Amino acid sequence: MTYPKEILSYKHEYIRFFIKRFPFDVFSILMRPHLERKRYNYILKEMSEVVGVFNVLKNLINKNKTDKFVLYELMSGDALFSHFVAKNFPNSKVVAIDLKFSEEYKSNNKSKFFDNIFFIEKNILEIKDLEKADFIVSIHACNNLSEIVIDKASEFSNFFILVPCCIGSENYEKWKRNNEIANKFFNAINNEYYKWCFYLAEYAKSKNFHINLKVDNKMLTERNLIIFGKKI
What one-character-per-residue DSSP string does 85-141 give? Predict the structure, then answer.
């Protein structure tokens, strides 16, 4: 078995990187519903996002000079990123956290492929008792869940990597109304997504993180700003 020609023929740096480093037998299970419906644009977007965030993670790992770490992926969905990290960093412990994983999904992936990936079925709002992690990652965090990812990172981790998705929260609207500097900055930006990301960076700073922002134009999505932070 190999990747479909619609993916193999796509000449893109991140897609080629992904294919070289991730076996199709695992990929075909994780992405089975999308492959069956031939949702190739969606699949390519997901692959590119995984590589974009993986590159940030890899740089942070290189700075720490160790490949032995604990990583939580919050709201992991199909957990493609978690599996990619588990495959490429076999000394790591990777935990995918989401509301529900099917028994078939868990048994197929845990027993057949990697022994360093684990699953927790829990609402992110109910997470109160995790062991400390080195990294917390979330891709596609929607609305106020992006704030909650930062809160959980502040509580349980030294680093976080976040790719926000849907925009807005009550705190964001209040912050825009009451923050004079933000209003001046926002008047110069005609992109609500970037405004939202700027707010989230400021929110993370208030939780004692040193923040970096990276726009990754190689990710096949308009929601391509990666926020990553280290606890001060």
Answer: HHHH-TTSEEEEEES---HHHHHHHHHHT-SSEEEEE--GGG---PPPEEEEEEEEE
